[in-house]
Amino acid sequence: MIWTKDYNTLATEISISKERRAETIKRAFEYAKSRFTRILNIDDFIVINVEGYDCIAYVIDEFNPIEIHPEIYPFDEFNVYSAQELQMKYQFRTEFDF
Predict the structure, then answer these.
(1) Potential cystine with 44: which of 11, 40, 56, 92 (Cβ 3.0-4.6 Å)?
(2) pTM for this entry
């Protein structure tokens, strides 16, 4: 899956979402939080878009470049899906902006 490094905080995503989507995001957050043994809160997670899917991701290092845990948690307006793994692939760019 490809992630472009764009993200929203989880709190922002909940606040801008309609009621049904906000409830699904909260369920996805609870699922994501339960996958870790340490105590985490809403500020430890972000919402990213990976190949058209919204996913909750745990932030390991918040300094640029932001680093996230490889396990992500996809959801849509109605469902929370099983955890997926994000793999970062580096590649050459064909165009350069100098």
Answers:
(1) 40
(2) 0.80
